[in-house]
């Protein structure tokens, strides 16, 4: 069956009324959490995980996709109107967007962000539609050694790229790997690091760690350094939305942003900060108007497009290789595992309704979000009226419910408190958080690949680099690890 | 909280603040190394090789433990050489502000208390208490309103999530069974 036919089948799934409803719920929820501080798409999906046990996987993932895309739309609104980016990916938008709003062009900034997100989201979804099956096809030939090399590459890049210090990046990663080995060993059935506790036999759940790091850690951190001065919201009443001139200046940045965001989103470690930053820098370099720094529309159009394209980009390695490249992707992978599904090439052949329904829902979600966001922006910003004490208290209560609901275990609550405290310390001392989650979910997978690869070769470690793919990928991993300090040293010598 | 409360220092959490003398947070590296040592110690009792696969259940534990141990030492060396740490930016938080220890401890209490009271008293009551504590940590003194809001959120969430198939335990916790039995229900 051709890709097009499969996609049409996907639309058949996504357009079922019940799935449309879940897409709408996801989009609304996503926009809301994108606007609210303290809660992002990864945390939201983690909290929704237990609820989705009763849902069909198609419906659940369609809702998650709505949350993922919706958060990107919502984040731009607060960046532009009150200069507080709700998500890391919206930081660049705030630079020019808020200046535009202050100069009376807020409506135009919101419009270029929303339409740019729509354009980038649609193009990136198109790219996903045609590139993902091709990679999945290729991945059929990957052997355990290749997969092991890919996970090592992912480890190296998240630890090196995320955060400001390589040491701290690797510490985060190794904490994740260390937490990942807790529980019954999958192959030998031996309990590891359970300290004699029954409750630890099943291992430490990603949901618990993610919720603790993001919700509890953030709440503790903000409580300890709370600044209760709310930003001033710029009104956009009576402004012209989007002129012909705005469009003329926006379309090229949209396309360039998409071209930067999609491939970078697919690479491990870059998240949404790097693509948006690159797009902003590029637009600034290309601009001749001298308006940058005072509210240039290109500086909103480019990063917003890059942000949404990157969100689609993370789905490529996730769906085709089962490789998460960001915190959100890690929790999506956990969701797949909850349903007993392993993303990868087999998912495309065994579960076409799920994969293509999900991809089709991205097109639908994008249209929904454009309609939800542009005309209703005045309604959305009302969310910011929720007083902060009650907002953070509510976040903690929902985090607690999410953790308690997993197994009604006090051990989980204890892990939540400990990891939450760790999340606090990591914020104060600037350790990146996503590598913990990547290490936690990819560690056991890496171990499995390593064992299968070595078992096939009777334990000869050369097998790990014996295929062309594994040798190349391992070399890249080593380069990512070794090159930056080497270059630094060379520069210092010169 | 370990060394977050070293004496004579109230304003230089995270380092780099001008007001108080900078104290090097060696405990950070020590903690990482200690975790690594604990993992290594446990790995010692696990088989490193296995009959079928070439590697046993102990190998990854050893790697994780050794990695953390070494990284902790590297971090301590970096700290010794004067590595500075800047708190991360977050919304609603001033990264350069001094730490409000009381607010932090109240918020921490809201996280720790549920470990003890969740099972005996149930989710709604626990949610009510935790909610009120966090509100207090953020400076809200509207006790009654917060207690009521927390109770409503906890109760609504209990009904809603229970309907969706989530197991959240008895409404008033394990205690309720004995209580209701006592009252003759």
Automatic annotation (TrEMBL), chain A:
Residue stretches spanning the membrane: 20-49, 61-82, 108-135, 147-163, 170-188, 200-223, 314-336, 356-379, 391-411, 431-450, 462-483
Superkingdom: Bacteria
Pfam families: TctA (PF01970)
InterPro entries linked to this entry: DUF112_TM (IPR002823)
This protein's UniProt keywords: Membrane, Transmembrane, Transmembrane helix
Occurrences of domain DUF112 (ranges): 20-437
PANTHER family: TRICARBOXYLIC TRANSPORT PROTEIN (PTHR35342:SF5)
Protein name: Putative tricarboxylic transport membrane protein
Organism whose genome encodes this protein: Devosia enhydra
From TrEMBL, chain B:
Residue ranges crossing the lipid bilayer per the database entry: 26-46, 52-77, 103-122, 142-161
DUF1468 domain ranges (all copies): 28-164
Keywords attached to this entry: Membrane, Transmembrane, Transmembrane helix
InterPro entries named among the record's database cross-references: DUF1468
UniProt protein name: Putative tricarboxylic transport membrane protein
């Amino acid at each position: 069956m051709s890709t097009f036919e499969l996609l049409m089948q996907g639309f058949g799934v996504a357009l079922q009324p019940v799935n449309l409803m879940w897409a709408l719920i996801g989009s609304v929820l996503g926009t809301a959490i994108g606007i609210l501080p303290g809660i992002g798409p990864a945390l939201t999906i983690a909290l929704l995980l237990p609820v989705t046990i009763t849902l069909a996987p198609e419906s659940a993932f369609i809702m998650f996709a709505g949350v993922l895309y919706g958060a990107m739309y919502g984040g731009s609104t607060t960046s532009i109107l009150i200069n507080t980016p709700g998500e890391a990916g919206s930081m660049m938008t705030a630079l020019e967007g808020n200046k535009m709003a202050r100069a009376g062009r807020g409506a135009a900034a919101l419009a270029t962000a929303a339409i740019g997100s729509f354009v980038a989201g649609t193009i990136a979804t198109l790219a996903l539609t045609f590139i993902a099956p091709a990679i999945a096809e290729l991945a059929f030939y990957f052997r355990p050694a290749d997969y092991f090399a890919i996970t090592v590459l992912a480890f190296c890049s998240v630890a090196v790229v995320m955060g400001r210090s390589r040491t701290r990046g690797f510490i985060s990663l190794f904490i994740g790997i260390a937490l990942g080995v807790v529980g019954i060993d999958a192959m030998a059935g031996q309990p590891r690091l359970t300290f004699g506790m029954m409750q630890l036999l099943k291992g430490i759940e990603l949901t618990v760690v993610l919720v603790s790091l993001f919700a509890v850690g953030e709440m503790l951190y903000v409580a300890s350094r709370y600044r209760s001065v709310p930003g001033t919201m710029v009104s956009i009443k009576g402004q012209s939305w989007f002129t012909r001139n705005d469009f003329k200046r926006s379309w090229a940045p949209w396309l360039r942003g998409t071209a930067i965001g999609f491939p970078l989103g697919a690479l491990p470690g870059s998240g949404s900060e790097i693509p948006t930053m690159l797009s902003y820098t590029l637009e600034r370099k290309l601009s001749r108007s001298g308006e940058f720094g005072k509210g240039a529309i290109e500086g909103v159009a480019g990063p917003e497009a890059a942000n949404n394209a990157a969100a689609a980009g993370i789905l490529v390695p996730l769906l085709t290789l089962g490789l998460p490249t960001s915190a959100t992707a890690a929790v999506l992978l956990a969701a797949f595992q909850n349903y007993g599904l392993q993303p990868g090439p087999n998912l495309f052949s065994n579960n076409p309704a799920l994969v293509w329904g999900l991809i089709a829902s991205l097109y639908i979600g994008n249209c929904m979000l454009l309609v939800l966001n542009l005309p209703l922006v005045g309604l959305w910003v009302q969310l910011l009226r929720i007083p902060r004490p009650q907002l953070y208290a509510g976040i903690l209560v929902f985090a607690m419910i999410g953790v308690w609901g997993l197994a009604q275990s006090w051990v989980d609550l204890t892990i939540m408190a400990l990891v939450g405290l760790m999340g606090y310390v990591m914020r104060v001392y600037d350790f990146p958080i996503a590598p913990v989650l990547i290490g936690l979910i990819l560690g056991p997978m890496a171990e499995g690949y390593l064992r299968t690869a070595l078992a096939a070769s009777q334990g000869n470690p050369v097998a790990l680099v014996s295929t062309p793919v594994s040798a190349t990928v391992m070399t890249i991993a080593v380069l990512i690890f070794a090159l930056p300090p080497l270059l630094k040293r060379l520069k210092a010598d010169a | 909280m370990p060394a977050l409360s070293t004496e004579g220092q109230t304003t230089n959490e995270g380092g780099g603040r001008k007001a108080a003398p900078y104290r090097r947070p060696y405990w950070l590296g020590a903690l990482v190394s200690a975790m690594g040592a604990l993992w290594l110690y446990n790995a010692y009792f696990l088989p490193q090789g296995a009959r079928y696969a070439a590697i046993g259940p102990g190998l990854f534990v050893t790697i994780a433990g050794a990695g953390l141990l070494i990284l902790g030492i590297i971090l301590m060396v970096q700290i010794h050489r004067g590595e500075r740490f800047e708190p991360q930016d977050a919304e609603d938080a001033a990264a350069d502000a001094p730490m409000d220890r009381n607010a932090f401890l109240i918020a921490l209490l809201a996280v720790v208390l549920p470990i003890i009271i969740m099972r005996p008293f149930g989710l709604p009551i626990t949610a009510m208490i935790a909610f009120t504590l966090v509100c207090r940590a953020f400076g809200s003194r509207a006790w009654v309103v917060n207690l009521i809001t927390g109770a409503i959120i906890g109760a609504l969430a209990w009904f809603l999530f229970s309907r969706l198939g989530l197991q959240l335990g008895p409404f008033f916790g394990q205690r309720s069974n004995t209580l209701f039995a006592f009252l003759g229900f």
